[in-house]
Amino acid sequence: MLAGELYDATDRELSVERLRTRLLLKELNQTGEDEREERKRILKELLPAAGSNLWLQPPFYCDYGYNIKTGDNVFFNFNCVVLDVTQVTIGSRTLFGPNVQIYSATHTMDHRERAAGLEYAKPVTIGDDVWIGGSAVICPGVTIGDRSVIGAGSVVTRDVPSDVFAAGNPCRVIRDLKQ
Hints:
CATH topology: UDP N-Acetylglucosamine Acyltransferase, domain 1
Low-confidence stretches: none
Helix content: 10-25%
Mean pLDDT: 96
Oligomer: single chain
Number of domains: 1
Shape: globular
CATH architecture: 3 Solenoid
CATH class: Mainly Beta
Structural class: alpha/beta
Distance between the termini: 41 Å
Largest sheet: 7 strands, mixed
Strand order of the largest sheet: 2-5-8-13-16-18-19
Radius of gyration: 16 Å
CATH superfamily: Hexapeptide repeat proteins
């Protein structure tokens, strides 16, 4: 799975790991704004590779948690989803609007492999100082460069370079942000 090869998502070990994650998410998503220490405790267990000052505005959802690596001062607004069946790397000071979805999980185009329950993953990398607008979807294998802005509702199917504003479905570069 982590090597990007076909794997069986119903594998017993993976199922146990996802259940553990679901229980942690249930705890996290039931915490209130005033329960900062409880949220910190849960996040430390759920996302052990997170930088300092990570803020997830519940509800938040992911597959495993341990495949998400963040820099410092990352913010996820309400209702974000990260399918982290392989590495999802997020740079420092990156902001996610509500309902953003990041997918590293994907399926083969071969119907026989899909019917057999096989899938695979491609890592996602998001740079430092990126802002991703609400309801954007980041597809498997995508890299978004430092300081770029992704417009709300965009579907990012290809890499986005640094220092640009990109938007649309499929997402494309609209203009340079270099000053």
